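Q: A reviewer asked whether we had any structural model of the full assembly, not just the individual parts. We don't, so I'm hoping you can provide one. Inputs are below.
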Amino acid sequence: MSHLLEVKDLEVKFALRSGDLTAINGVSFTLDKGEKLGLVGESGAGKSVTGFAIINLLSKPGFISGGKILFNGEDISSMNDSKMRNIRGDRISMIFQDPMMTLNPVFTIGTQMIETLKAHRQISKAHAKEIALEKLKKVYIPSPEKRLSQYSHEFSGGMRQRIIIAISLLTDPAIIIADEPTTALDVTIQAEIMDLLRELCDSEQMGLILITHDLAVVSEVTEKIAVMYAGRIIESGATNDIVNDPRHPYTAGLIRALPGGVLKPGEKLHQIPGMMPTLTDIPLGCAFNPRCLIKNGICESELPELLDNGHKRMIACHMRN
Amino acid sequence: MKRSIKRFKDSYLFYSFKNDKTAMASFFLLACFIILSITAPLVSPYNPYDAKNTDIMNSEIPPMWLDGGSSTFILGTDNMGRDLLSTMIYGLRISVIIGICAVALQAFIGIMMGLTAGYVGGKVDTVLMRIADIQFSFPYLMVAIFISAIFQVMFGVGSFEKLAVPLLVIIIGLSEWPVYARTIRAAVMGEKNKEYVEAARVIGLSRPVIMFRHILPNTLTSVMVISTIQVANVVMSEAALSFLGLGMPVTMPSLGSLIREGFEYIFSGSWWITIFPGIFLILFVLVVNLLGDWLRDVLNPKLYKG
Amino acid sequence: MFAFIIRRIAQAIFVMLVISLIGFAIKNKIGDPVRDMVGERVTPQERAKIRQKLGLNDPFITQYIRFVDHAVHGDLGLSFFYKKPALDVIVEKAPATMEMVIGAGLLIILISLPLGIYTSLKPRTFFSRFVMGFSTLGVSVPVFLTAIMLIYIFGVQLHWLPSYGRGKTVDVFGNGWWMSGFFTADGLKHLILPCISLASIELPLFIRLIRSEMMEVLETDYIKYAWAKGLSPMRIWLVHAFKNTLLPVITVFGVQIGIMFAFTILTETVFQWQGMGYMFLEAVERSDTSLLIAYLVVVGSVFVIVNTVVDIIYGFINPTIRIAGR
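A: Here is a predicted structure for the entire assembly that you could use as a starting point for your response.
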């Protein structure tokens, strides 16, 4: 059976004056109906770029230089723009990081909801408004009729993100890509928004790609995880397995760095020494080797392949395979 | 000396200058203009202020390459029979003198106001900046036209013309200082709370010393950029005033008054009296503007929009 | 919002008072109201009597208050040359100037909007580079030279367009108040060159402003989100991006209309256009102080009013300011 979404060996490059720079290298994963996938990594690992590549909306000078993105079996990575617009915002919706910046400040919420529907459906304004109201109710916005005629600055951060979720629900999409949807919000609001997303994905049977640096968030919401480092997936598998038994030293480091219940007062959080390399100077061999505690000679010369370890786990590490 | 030359050669400013053809070409042309205006008495074929050289019989002779032109007057003559090229060079000289002096005056007033407002703060700041804001909300040209109109009514046309150069410097200086005041004040507000100023205050330096020796140098990049662009603006303002008959008199014409004078003759076909000074003026303003744009891009001070 | 409007109007009144104070001080210093009224062939005794009667020997502040009081009631003194109230002279000349400014304003909107938007969307095309280069040059050409060159090319050489005057005008309201060139072919023909010249000052500025604002907006998250919503490019560019670009542009446009008023003095001189600017220069030549001061006060008010109205409109369009002012 074919998957809802299948990303195969995706490669993204940035065309710079000094030559092309590879940002995403051989990323593959799948997503099925109602499935929730977490893309995890530090900033600069290429998770957002992957998200934007799926809806073919890379900022210049980025472009997809290789691989396939199959949506319902059809390759959408090379689709022309007008055809792509039937999918983008309709079948695949996206939620951005900062709700403050995502809504256009000079249009009412109603306008911004109705225009989305009108871009994808032949419907009357009144009907569009009805659907908008219905979706606002779904994300628990109180007195939605009144809200439709308000501007984004009249809402709190959490409310804005709910509205954006409502906008992405308008067309009953098959997939929602959420790029750090709670990073700009208060901690208390974060949990609410995450619960809402999970609940909606379950009830509407939508696929979710949750892009975040926060392993704790991912582990609560998703069933699958793919950990990215310097433009590649270095470990992927079921969420439970990875959180409980991380195999790649980088994933292990990320999990140890989480503030868990085991810390005593005064004890320091773990941290992974060093910093992720920038795209211009990715080290030879395994990109993680300068920060790795268990590296060997081979790590500095040969790139580890992402291999299946037989337990539905994929790991790219010389030492663990 | 040698070391400071080397330091200049290694600087970012010089590096980007070397790699920018527009900047180099503009600089070269500007240098030519400046040299031309300094050496005007030496390089111009005639002295246009000397009545001996002018003969009304020679008026409106076209440039030498046209029918009726003569090689004694390369660009032809104006309506009073003066050699056009010489008159233009002298006119440029006047425009440049007024440009530089007026910018200096503006900068002086503006910097004083800006420093005082920014450093003293409180009521002084409010009052000074209100004045600047009110004046700023009116176009410079309008203020300048108004001041010169009043001066002319006050002094009478005759004595205004005798004092035209210093008066124009004052008029234009008074009408455009707020640009400096606002930028300097913004810079001072930024610098004022930095540690080095605090330190200077702690070791007991007086207020004027702190203002001039410590804060002012840090605002110099902004001043440099504004001044360059202002030279172009001032030359334009001066030309506009002279064109309106509120600036330099015909007996001692700047480029603007030459254009005014020639405009009356354009309908009878003597286009050169207007067009050559016009091209001269445009070129001068253009190169200064291009240099100003380049400086702003390279030094990138936080300038006030407006 | 209400408080914001009140504050803005109070500011405007303050500025007007400052302008009137300057105007009055000048008038007091260099003007001669007695001459304005009765001319110069009057004996010194009679002059002194008239001075006393007019209250010219009162303290400065009393006279100033009287001046403001008169000004508020529409009396700005007598024009020495025209032998009628200065305000009437200005009102008579105003339509000519207004028509030139309106025409130029329309030209600016019609030309700078499409060019600014185009150059922001396609910055690398040859046409965009040409427009940008041309606007760099345009900044450096004084308006009176543009006007002269237009006259030389289209008037003197090609004989296509008239080079001075307003042409045939019609009386719009039948009471002689507004003689308009907008409604006759000849009048419109006469408007073309002056309006192009006047517009040429602001065009480079507006093309650059619209371009840079638009480019900034195109980089924002909400535009990227609009793309992600699958909207059509035209809707994103012309509705989403454009409306956000418009806010700063409107503000600047308001201010620049005032600046265009200042520049009409130049264009009216070149085109011998019988408007306020032309009148002003004549007043300078004739030392008609009352008319000068009246012009200062009137143009100052136009300025202050335009600025205030623009600010208030801006407050209405921009919801963020509206909230802050509430």
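A: Points you may want to mention in the reply: Chain C has 13 helices and two strands. The interface with chain B takes residues 15, 18, 26, 29-30, 136-137, 139-145, 148-149, 151-152, 156, 163, 255, 258-259, 261-263, 265-266, 269-270, 280-281, 284-285, 287, 289, 292, 296, 299-300, 303-304, 307 of chain C (CB under 8 Å).
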